[in-house]
């Protein structure tokens, strides 16, 4: 451990914390950095810890389309990341956001890049991909985006490899639960951990995902001006993994990733992993609103017990959740998934913002406190580049557009309702 007070404490070793630590540890002269998380890395309760995640540049919002292209370039070429990226192609079907496909294609045109993306009509899907989607429920689906140059990455492995690099660069990784931030006279000077330790630093960066609102509320319950409020809501979704035998792997091995944002299916899947697992996600989130008596707030707080935050066996999950997963599997693949058995299942929690933009910002009412998180169900793919922006923010060098998108006090009032912000509570599903 360093004798001098470290320059930075980063709380949270998901993609935001890992990427921040990576870019900070490459600075010259090298600063002293402590990275704290509840678990040894890669943390199994992090949203960033997963079997796989989709990596794409297909966005209706040209800002994230550009960022996605930049991230993809690194996924393809950076020795730290290229091993974990698989270019399977990505399908995206939608029924309620009819112009999303057009907007995405227009973005590529405007940026002058040819990624090979095209619009597919539902009937075309049935005949392509060697008939894998001949049984897909295409009720209400109008447009499908096909981008052969998107793909997916081995999530937990890529995160671990990044954190290996981070610790090799001299970052101190501490396994501890941060119970409170040390906040006094309008400034943050460090963190206290559950095991009674205190760490101080010049700058404290919260990369705490779905746990951010509770940590700030626990740390300064009476300071209303510091609270997260409606900026970040902890939201969970359920995902499930199937172990495939050799014959099943053969059937799905050339499948694209598929985001199916339509009809009752509402879910997604990716091709088999090197460990022969096929993953499905139910894309209808939920929150878990609880009273926070000390601050007088109602806050959505993720479960932290193993059975509701890490991979577990299906017998530990509510029946209604298992039925939702079955709806996704059946809706995407129909009879192709007959006989497949879910072996592992998980609630996965992320911090969601009303406008889908993240927070990469100083806390304007607490000196030395910075926030870099709230991936809003789309932050993972930016692992190779997010830290670059966090370092720019710390130096006050963020570009104007990035600063406005990610600042703490941006207006959220006229933002259209984010369909990813759930109305349902996890308690409603505990049957
Ligand atoms: C099911 C699911 C699927 C997704 N799929 C995709 C996808 O395909 N592509 C994509 O780009 N994005 C995807 N996302 C979004 C992406 O995973 C997240 O936006 C991103 O991983 C969030 O990273 P993070 O670092 O902010 O938070 P996390 O990864 O959750 O990390 C936060 C870390 O902070 C630690 N922490 C919190 N509080 C404390 C404390 N008090 N003390 C110590 N440690 C603490 C936690 O233990 C955790 O390790 C998905 C999200 C979910 C939930």
TrEMBL record:
Domain of life assignment: Eukaryota
Stored Pfam families: DAO
Domain FAD dependent oxidoreductase: from-to ranges: 8-393
Keyword Membrane included in the entry's annotation: no
Keywords assigned: FAD, Flavoprotein, Oxidoreductase
Cofactor: FAD
Family label: Belongs to the MSOX/MTOX family.
Protein name in the entry: FAD dependent oxidoreductase domain-containing protein
Annotated source species: Stereocaulon virgatum
């Amino acid at each position: 451990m360093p004798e001098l007070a470290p320059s930075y404490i980063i709380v949270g070793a998901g993609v935001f914390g890992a990427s921040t630590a990576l870019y900070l540890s490459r600075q010259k002269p090298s600063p002293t950095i402590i990275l704290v998380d509840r678990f040894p890395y890669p943390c199994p309760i992090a949203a960033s810890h997963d079997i796989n995640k989709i990596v794409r540049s297909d966005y209706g919002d040209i800002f994230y389309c550009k960022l996605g292209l930049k991230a993809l370039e690194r996924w393809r070429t950076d020795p730290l990341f290229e091993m974990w990226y698989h270019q399977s192609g990505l399908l995206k079907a939608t029924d309620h956001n009819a112009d999303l496909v057009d907007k995405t294609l227009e973005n590529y045109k405007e940026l002058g890049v040819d990624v090979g993306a095209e619009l597919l009509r539902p009937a075309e899907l049935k005949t392509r991909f060697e008939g894998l989607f001949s049984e897909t429920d295409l009720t209400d689906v109008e447009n499908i985006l096909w981008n052969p140059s998107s793909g997916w990455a081995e999530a937990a492995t890529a995160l671990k490899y990044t954190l290996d690099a981070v610790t090799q660069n001299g970052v101190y990784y501490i396994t501890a639960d941060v119970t409170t931030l040390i906040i006094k006279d309008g400034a943050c000077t460090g963190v206290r951990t559950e095991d009674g330790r205190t760490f101080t630093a010049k700058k404290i960066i919260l990369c705490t995902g779905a746990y951010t609102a509770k940590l700030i509320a626990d740390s300064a319950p009476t300071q209303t001006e510091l609270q997260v409020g409606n900026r970040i809501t902890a939201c969970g979704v359920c995902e499930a993994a199937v172990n495939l035998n050799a014959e099943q792997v053969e059937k799905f091995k050339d499948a694209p990733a598929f985001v199916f944002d339509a009809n009752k299916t509402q879910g997604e899947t990716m091709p088999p992993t090197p460990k022969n697992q096929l993953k499905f996600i139910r894309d209808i989130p939920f929150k878990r609103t609880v009273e926070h008596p000390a601050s007088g707030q109602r806050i959505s707080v993720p479960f932290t017990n193993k059975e509701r935050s890490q991979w577990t066996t299906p017998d530990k999950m509510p029946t209604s959740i298992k039925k939702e997963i079955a709806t996704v599997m059946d809706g995407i693949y129909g009879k192709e998934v007959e006989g497949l058995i879910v072996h592992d299942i998980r609630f996965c929690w992320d911090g969601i913002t009303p406008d889908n933009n993240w927070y990469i910002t100083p806390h304007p009412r607490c000196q030395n406190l910075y926030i870099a998180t709230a991936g809003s169900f789309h932050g993972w793919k930016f692992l190779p580049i997010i830290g670059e922006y966090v370092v720019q923010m710390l130096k006050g060098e963020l570009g104007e557009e990035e600063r406005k998108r990610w600042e703490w006090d941006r207006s959220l009032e006229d933002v259209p309702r984010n369909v990813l912000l759930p109305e349902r509570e996890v308690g409603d599903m505990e049957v």
